[in-house]
Model the fold of this input.
Amino acid sequence: MNPEKITILANAASRTLNHKALESAVAIVSRQVACEVIFTTSMQHAQEISAQLSANPANLIAACGGDGTIHTLLNSCHPGSPMGVIPAGTANVIARELGIPLNMQDACKTLLTGALQNIDAGLCNDRKFLFVAGIGFDARVAASVSPLLKRLIGRYAYHIAGLKEFLGYIPPRLTVTTSASSQTWQGKFAIIANMRRYGGDLFFAPEARHDDQMLDMVLLKQFNITSLLKLLNFAKRNGPFPFDAAEIIRSRDFEIISDTPVPYQLDGEVFAATSTFHIAIDAVRARIITP
Done:
């Protein structure tokens, strides 16, 4: 594509954002097309700007930040409008899965030399996600992570928060159905994957693909230390999938009913507790520039 202008929306709170590297990369892009950087100070700020600018098809909006920044723009940009990605977050799952360079200059060059790729997007209660939805425990963990600790030690802040949340945690009872099957599944914690990775280098759903119009659910049957360790061992690629502890369910859609309201997370962004979850592949695919 040949945009008339590229606007980079950079998350000012991103712990790994290198301002000098971004400035240098923008200078390179500006030699070929008009390019501007806007530092967003809140989710609402990013939503307002991206909604306004993406309404003009001559503009290309690029998210500079982590997976949460990409998630925000995905949900606020005009449906189907092209997006660029400049990774500057803690895990950068989306960039890694799409092969976008983690080096800022190379990522900016991709905005000029890359091609638009159609990417499946999931929907959870009418909100889009690109790589994962989590129902229950991981949302509690993500909500409890200290921003200061995250800045200091990155993804390890989630490990600490996870240990704290596990103690005393009472899991919900989740009932799962799909439109393609008459079967009903029961579990205590669910991950619905559209991409292979789940934060850093954990692979709970290694068969998930972002271009197959399917979602891969990993449903933990019982919430206890033994089941969790078995599943984590698999996610670290140290053993087989623990079918005695979890289920893998592939479908285009899921209906999840919880016996108690629970929070949920989409691409690492946490949302308020609810008891009903409608999850499906979005009819409108995301359009992201990749190498």
Notes: The mean pLDDT is 92. The first strand starts at residue 5 and ends at 11. Residues 19-30 form the longest helix (12 residues).
